[in-house]
Design brief:
35% helix, 10-stranded mixed sheet, alpha+beta
Length: 417
């Protein structure tokens, strides 16, 4: 399934295209409609593979939600993956879990009356619970990373004991000392500074920014507009880390991160590290980009909901994470073997293709050892259009190269037929 998905990457995914013929189309259709094939089992298998990669590492479990088939009112189907990222190297280790959310009309008025366990927002705590499996598998530390939507009191109060939480603050919460979260951070003295590279974004050019860094302990209170259920504390102690851009470019909105974490932050070096961890959240945005229009074009799927669609999306998610792993290993820092992602039988074809794409200069020679994942990533990047001179290949280039390779591999497999 992985080979068929990447072979059609960038051209949209359909059962007919994946099948490469009537017989193949029927096999894939039966696979997607088979009640014994479940997304839960797919995720358990993916999680087990990821757990094998995390021993002794500090792992960031990055989670977020993306629309799949949603109308202008926000109703429809979304998916919510959790991926494991090495906190020090920034490399993608694998998929941890995924949840599907089906939002229907007429629920907004009842939202405040529903218990937390019945709300869509429960997914953020579910993601942290799934991430706890990484700690049980031997990770040295697991930090769950979330954007503003994950700033939910219950997620602090009920998080698993073996994971830490890091979330971008979404609201100016009341504090136990009578102040509010944002005013508290504003009143602190600067602890130090740090310089970060801000990537280009819609309406914003890439730039280097200097941040003023502050941090301190706070006690956030249970929201006043809701009755606290029994068993939950009325206040939770966390640390607020503030990174605010100094002297921003004229006409540009200054960078500002207000981060809440359960990590101990003892000095400015710890605070800088927390900001660095949060900035790796962009990895999941790259995953969504790989899955969507410029990659697998997951939004164009025509399968029926409540079964076939979710299974195909789960398979695409697993394939997209593998593409991200190739991107992560493009420099060969982790020294991962080819067999982590590909069939070792692919190596002869990879080596022969490598000879055809290498150039005469040193920058156009594959610098990585044969049999390594980095060797394969270099080949796929060259097939995807990377020259070896400018920048580094991203997920779309890597997917384009994978597509080319599988077309070549199909011809390779026919050489003795």
């Amino acid at each position: 399934m992985f080979e068929r998905l990447v072979a059609h990457g960038g051209k949209g995914v359909s059962v007919r295209g994946l099948g490469s013929g009537r017989a193949g189309e029927m096999r894939i259709a039966r696979f997607l409609h088979n009640p014994k094939v479940t997304t839960d089992e797919m995720m358990r298998t993916a999680q087990a593979r990821t757990c094998a990669q995390v021993v002794g590492r500090h792992v960031l479990a990055v989670q977020d939600t993306s629309a799949l088939r949603v109308d202008e009112k926000g109703l429809g189907l979304s998916f919510h993956p959790i991926i494991a990222v090495d906190a020090n190297a920034g490399t993608v280790l694998g998929l941890v879990d995924n949840f599907f959310l089906a939002r229907r009309g007429g629920e907004r008025e009842k939202r405040r009356q529903r218990a937390f366990e019945e709300k869509d927002s429960r997914r953020w705590l579910s993601g942290a619970e799934s991430a706890s499996a990484l700690a049980e598998a031997g990770a040295a530390c697991v930090t769950v990373i979330e954007d503003r939507e994950g700033d939910i009191y219950e997620c602090f109060a009920l998080k698993p004991a073996n994971v830490e939480k890091l979330v971008r603050a979404a609201q100016d919460r009341p504090l136990a000392d009578g102040t509010t979260l944002f005013s508290k951070g504003d009143a602190w003295d600067e602890a130090g500074t740090m310089t970060v590279e801000l990537p280009a974004a819609p309406g914003r050019a890439a730039r280097r920014a200097e941040l003023s860094v502050k941090f301190g302990k706070v006690e956030i209170l249970w929201p006043k507009n809701r009755a606290a259920p029994s068993g939950l504390p009325k206040a939770v102690g966390v640390t607020l880390v503030v990174g605010r851009e100094i002297n921003p470019v004229e006409g540009e909105e200054p960078a500002l991160w207000l981060l809440l974490t359960t990590h101990q932050v003892n000095d400015v070096a710890d605070a800088r590290r927390i900001i660095g961890f949060y900035r790796l959240r962009w990895t999941i945005e790259q995953l969504f980009r790989t899955m969507k229009t410029k990659g697998f074009d997951v939004e164009a799927l025509r399968q029926d909901q409540d079964g076939p669609l979710e299974k195909l999306v789960a398979a695409i998610l697993i394939a997209a994470v593998k593409v991200m792993q190739l991107v992560a290993e493009r420099d060969g820092e982790a020294k991962r073997p080819l067999s982590d992602v590909f069939d070792p039988d692919d190596q002869p074809a990879l080596e022969r293709v490598c000879q055809s794409v290498e150039g005469k200069t040193e920058k156009q020679k594959n610098p990585h050892p044969r049999g390594s994942l980095a060797f394969a990533a270099w080949v796929f990047a060259r097939l995807g259009g990377w020259t070896g001179y400018y920048g580094k290949p991203g997920p779309i280039v890597m997917l384009r190269g994978l597509t080319q390779f599988h077309a070549i591999k199909h011809g390779w497999s026919l050489r003795n037929v």
